Amino acid sequence: MPDDAYRAVRAVFGEKELVDLTIAISLMNAYDRMAISFRNTPDAAVKK
């Protein structure tokens, strides 16, 4: 991550919030990868 992007994020989020945000993003990425590997189609896509 570029230093200016990190400084911009730190201006908005505290250390704990930044850690929580990083964990949340990592979990969403892991869940997405698992859903893709299991060929799980989201309900919203099925109902269209």
Key features?
77% helix; 48 residues; mainly alpha
What is the radius of gyration? 16 Å
- Main beta sheet, described? none
Mean pLDDT: 90
Element string (H = helix, E = strand): HHH
Kindly name the structural category.
Answer: mainly alpha
Question: What is the subunit arrangement here?
Answer: single chain
Total domains, how many?
1
Number of helices: 3
Determine the fraction of residues in helical runs and give it as a percent range.
Answer: over 70%
User: β content, as a range?
Assistant: under 5%
Distance between the termini: 38 Å
Number of E-type strands: 0
Low-confidence stretches: none
Q: What sort of overall outline do the alpha carbons produce when their principal axes are compared?
A: elongated
Can you walk me through this structure?
The chain is mainly alpha-helical. The protein has one domain. It has helices at residues 3-12, 15-37, 43-46.
